[in-house]
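Amino Acid Chain and Its Fold in Token Form
===========================================
What this section holds: a protein sequence and its matching fold, both as plain text.
Structure line: whole-number tokens from a learned vocabulary of local backbone shapes, matched to residues.
Purpose: to set a sequence beside its fold so the mapping can be learned.
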Amino acid sequence: MAKKSVASLQTGSKRLTKAIKMVKSPKTGAYTFTESVMAPEFVNDWLNKK
């Protein structure tokens, strides 16, 4: 499963990171992309979560 963090975004005083994860569907075997914007310290937890 490929995964990557894409961009760092800054809004005011908050630093945010947009993370994109490629997830394989157990039913069809097709891959979909899941995106989320979060604080940088939560990115690794989100990417490692199944």
